Amino acid sequence: MLKIENLKASIGEVEILKGVDLEIKPGELHAVMGPNGSGKSTLCHVVMGNKDYKSEGSIFIDEEEISKKQQNERSEMGVFQSFQYPVGLPGVTLLEFSKIINPDLSDDEITSLAEGFKLKEFLDREVNVDLSGGEKKRCELFQLTLKNPKVALLDEIDSGLDIDAIKSVAELINENRNNTTAYLIVTHYSRILNYLDVDKVHIVVNGEIAKTGTKELIEEVDSGGYTQY
Ligand SMILES: Nc1ncnc2c1ncn2[C@@H]1O[C@H](COP(=O)(O)OP(=O)(O)O)[C@@H](O)[C@H]1O
Ligand SMILES: [Mg+2]
Predict the structure, then answer these.
(1) pLDDT by residue (tens digit) across 190-212?
(2) What angle do CA 229, 222, 141 make, to 5 degrees?
(3) What tens digit of pLDDT does each residue of 88-141 get?
(4) Which terminus, N or C, of the chain has the lesser number of Cβ atoms within 10 Å?
(5) What is the distance between the alpha carbons of residues 208 and 163, in angstroms, rounded to a whole number?
(6) Which of 20, 38, 42 for a ligand 1 pocket mutation test, highest count of atoms within 8 Å of Cβ?
(7) Which residues line the pocket of ligand 1, CB cutoff 6 A?
(8) Does the 2-224 domain belong in CATH 3.90.180.10?
(9) Hey, where are the domains in the chain?
């Protein structure tokens, strides 16, 4: 479970998050939607423990308060973040990286999991080096499944993808979704959400949750845009 209470975040003198409350139970998938620059990525970065941000408020994983913990501790406690722009790791193969993420898995287990993500032939290539946008996003979801975290923060997993790639990314999320992980999916387009079983939708505008609802909000955003909030 992820629970956030009155989370504020700033960089320098600029306040970006102005008091966000959110609770995602295990197995639930919440969508965070909002215009560019509204603070969606900041929310993910602050939950993950990125030190560029000064933050206050509380973040709980299950019953444990993590807001004073370092990024690597949060990762060990089961927080996973996929990146809007996944970075390449020259010199590290995907197989090597997979074993770092989950040392308990054998090569055979990693290989068979990679097959499900159509990434088998990428295992002996460097992580995210010379990959297409869609391949990088599949690779992020593969890492998510390897890690099986308590909290999955998926920041614009749909950005830069064509229609078919968005659908295939959504299908991978559905196939690998489980009832022990709390999912937070950030997007500003509704398209990917139409393929997913979304429990709640939060509209973030100007660093605050302007409205929370269920799937009907996706249509509301589609027809009226973000200026209505
Ligand atoms: N590292 C940073 N330095 C300065 N300003 C930042 C930084 N990161 C984010 N911001 C600012 O915070 C606001 C929210 O950014 P962000 O969380 O990336 O928005 P979103 O993901 O919703 O598009 C933007 O105005 C952005 O310019
Ligand atoms: Mg962003």
Answers:
(1) 999 999 999 999 999 999 999 99
(2) 105
(3) 999 999 999 999 999 999 999 999 999 999 999 999 999 999 999 899 999 999
(4) N
(5) 30
(6) 42
(7) 11, 14, 16, 34, 36-42, 52
(8) no
(9) 2-224
